[in-house]
Each structure stands twice: as structure tokens, then as C-alpha cells.
User: Which sequence fits this backbone?
């Protein structure tokens, strides 16, 4: 399976609290819910289709618990996202989660690189990661990501956790796809392609 990350980010790279006002208040974050008002029907169609492409999902613990408490209790007939999440295998990277309540969940608590490598070696389409900032940063640092999709919202949030750390690995990216939607969301899909070239 191809490992793909799907992340809603602001123009200044913030990913924290994109969905709800009180979704993630870590670090005194007060500006949650900044992405939702910008999703028009066309952008939501893209998101729904992305979830439908998934053969399985990989989460960090926090995003897993957030999704389980929202999508996991929703009737699958009410949303294509709920239908995908509630009917396909889910994997969660965690050393603390011991008894996941969401059906068809496997906890990856040992050698994460080996476990993800085994999942990527399986036949199928996409192993998708949604949100899960700490996990995405770790996957990128360990060169385990095949494609990065950024849903860039036209807003500068000005505080909060960013997708890419202030100091981290450098990675060149090849642009695979780019599109824009009426309310200003742009979607870029990239494929990591080694180290960047620097001017001499």
C-alpha cells in the first residue's frame, strides 16, 4: 500500500485545532475551528473521495481518539467519511492505548518502523494518515511517506502547532497534483524525492 498523509494546514503551517473550536487547546491555543468555514461543496467532495480511496487508516493516538469519538459513533450511512472509517482497518501508533473500542483497530506498539514497513508492503491502494501531526513528522523523518497531500486554507492562524517543525529533516518534493476551490482552499499533492538541491 502507498502511505499517504492528508493534512489541513493554514498558510502559516498551523494544523492544530483545525476542525473545532475546542478540539485541541494545548499550549493555550484559542483559535480552533479555523478550517471548517472554508470548505465549500467542491472541496468536501475531494475530501470524501480521498477517504473512499483508502484501504486502511493509520493514526496517532490523539487523532485516533478524536476520530473514534466522532466518526466511530456515527451511522456509516450518514457520511462517506464515516462509511470508510467504520468499515476499513485502522492502525494506531501508541505505547499507551491498550483497549481500543473502535472496531477493526490494531494498536502498533512495538517497532513502529517495521510495522509501517509491513503495512506498506501489503497489496492495495492507500494507507492514509489524517491529522496525526506527531506521527506525520516521525514518518517523514523516517522516510516512510509516499505522498503528502496538503489542504491549504486561506488563513493565517498566528498561533498553534505547525505541521513542520522549526528544525527537522529537509526534503525535496515533486508536485503530483494541484487544484483550487471557490472559497480559496488549495490542495497540493507531493511525492518526497530525497534531499533538496541548494544554490552554491
Assistant:
Amino acid at each position: 500500500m502507498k502511505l499517504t498523509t492528508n493534512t489541513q494546514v493554514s498558510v502559516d503551517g498551523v494544523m492544530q485545532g483545525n476542525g473545532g473550536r475546542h478540539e485541541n487547546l494545548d499550549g493555550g491555543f484559542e483559535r480552533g475551528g479555523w478550517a471548517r468555514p472554508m470548505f465549500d461543496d467542491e472541496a468536501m467532495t475531494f475530501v470524501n473521495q480521498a477517504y473512499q480511496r483508502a484501504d486502511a487508516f493509520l493514526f496517532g493516538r490523539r487523532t485516533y481518539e478524536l476520530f473514534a469519538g466522532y466518526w466511530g459513533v456515527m451511522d456509516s450511512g450518514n457520511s462517506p467519511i464515516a462509511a470508510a472509517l467504520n468499515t476499513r482497518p485502522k492502525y494506531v501508533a501508541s505505547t499507551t492505548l491498550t483497549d481500543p473500542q473502535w472496531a477493526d483497530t490494531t494498536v502498533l506498539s512495538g517497532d513502529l518502523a517495521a510495522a509501517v514497513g509491513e503495512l506498506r508492503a501489503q497489496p492495495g491502494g492507500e494507507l492514509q494518515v489524517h491529522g496525526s501531526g506527531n506521527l506525520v513528522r516521525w514518518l517523514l523523518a523516517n522516510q516512510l511517506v509516499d505522498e503528502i497531500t496538503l489542504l491549504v486554507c486561506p488563513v493565517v492562524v498566528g498561533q498553534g502547532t505547525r505541521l513542520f517543525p522549526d528544525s527537522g529533516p529537509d526534503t525535496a518534493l515533486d508536485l503530483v497534483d494541484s487544484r483550487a476551490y471557490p472559497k480559496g482552499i488549495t490542495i497540493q499533492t507531493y511525492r518526497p524525492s530525497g534531499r533538496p538541491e541548494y544554490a552554491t
Helices lie at 41-53, 61-70, 80-87, 112-121, 133-141. The beta strands are 2-10, 54-60, 90-93, 105-108, 126-130, 147-153, 173-180, 186-192.
